[in-house]
Amino acid sequence: MATNLQRGPATVDEDREANRGKSRTTTIVINLVVMVITLLVLFPFYEVVIVSFGNNPGNLIPHIFDIANYRYIIVQSGALRAFLTSVGIVLVGTPFSLLLTILTAYPLSKKHLPGRGILTGIILFTMFFGGGLVPWYLVLKQLHLINSYGVYIIPSAINTFYVILMMTFFREFPDSLEESALIDGASDWTILTRIVLPTSMPVIATISLFYSVDRWNDWFTPILTINDTSKWSLQAFTYNLMQNVNQFTSNAQASAAASVAQSHIQILPDGLKMAVIIVGMIPIMCVYPFLQKYFAKGVMLGSIKG
Amino acid sequence: MSVNNAKELSTRRVQQTKSKRSYYLKRYRIMYLMLLPALAFYATFSYYPMYGITLAFKQYMFNLGVLRSPWVGLANFQLMFQDPQFWNAFRNTIEISLGRLAFEFPVAIILALLLNELGHSKMKRVYQTVLTFPHFLSWVVFSGIMIEILGDTGIVDGILSQFGIHGFDPLVTPSVFRPLLFITDNLKEVGWGTIIYLAAIAGVNPELYEAAYVDGAGRLRQMWHVTLPGIRGTISILLIFAVGGLMNAGFDQIFNMYSGPVQPVSDILQTYVFRLAFVSGNGFDIPTAAGLFSSVIGGLLLLGANWVIKRMGQEGLF
To answer: Are residues B15 and B141 in the same domain?
Structure first.
């Protein structure tokens, strides 16, 4: 406040517009506080990067730049296959989930659909109560989904929260547009594909991104259901490497020692772990700008109006 | 109007509703077809497993399967209630969830208030970009990073060694493991958590700030008397949902971060069920009972939360 007064009456109006009594010192202090928090979040990632390039864990300043960890992870460890499996899961699973979600959300967004209340209730009930882990596992077993690629796609095909999100969006769609199309003889299917979907691209983009990230990050399904290492997703592979890192390290050291050019290289367990983490993070970083563009919209769409 | 007339009118009305129903069925034929795959999905993966709940009241025999295993009444629950590990997991679930309410829930609000004070500056975007990113990583990956930093050869240990504290590994130290859970979850999720508050803050009427300023309110008082009341609705709804989710104490994080030495302070019902069913392999009946116990309490809590929110005149989940 004091600084405002010192600047004299001429700037008071300006201040009111832009600052409303916000002093510069406070802004700097707040900046510093948030900057410290941001650095706390950022710093671990810096460590991950330098350790993945062969620096000792605990080093602050990198002095080695070596890609032996990446070479082993990508070429020999089986991570490449797991990476491609994960890519495949996202490419097949996302459109599949999206289609099912649209087909669920669109009819349920129609106020006049008879039985809408019951149908919505059936779906929402699953958010409150479920059979639990063991019965769910037994169903997967009964359907022969254990140790199959299908387990990545089918049991998690619909996320009820995203259905609600999309329903909320479709509900905002003006009825008049659809009614006039109906009068012109268009079927509900035509209205959905030709009119509703083309104008719903933001919500479709949001939900596709959410589904892809969920697919990419799903680690529990394969841990629970996939024993066959050749069918591991990258998350399952990463989890396994974390658990059995010493075995991976001795394999990596053996193969490095076998090649004359690399025999001087010492492979550390931490380096392998961090390299596989980076490999798993790259696709997320690639879509992150889009995620950032859409996620706020997604959060707001589905959120309770406050 | 005569009685006859009234009768005629009512039969006509019945006929009308009948034809209306068949009209609607025809009119919405395609809509119902669209819903079929989803209904099949929910029937298979949400409702069919509920039949497996019967296992909680049976003695599971691997060779007989769910259907033919013999009924044992409440014996599984009796055994479960006699297991000290079950009670420990139950207590941990509640305590860790309450801990998150106390040490994680307010952090996102405070950070949102701070970010809001930065206006539309470029730095604010940079902060938000960094802070939100970890939300999109899985706990397998993020716990890997945290363990790298905090583990016995990590940078934190290196820094502590400078101060003469050697060999301190918080990941296996029971007294600090829970705070560690709260801190690392905050690092991962706080940026994401601010988004909803920032959106709510954006909806506060700017004239209120003007008025407060004219009345001599400084920055902190504006924050306290204008911004906070402006997002009170959002805060209370999120708080109620957090209470409704009390039985979910953060399985993904704990499963990927805990180990033997810290199990007594971090074992929650979900990790207990997982271990019992898939690690020790003593059969599926008691874990099913434990899962049912957790589902019922969790479902009731969430229903209660939803009810409270509706009582407040807000839009609940349904």
So the answer is: no
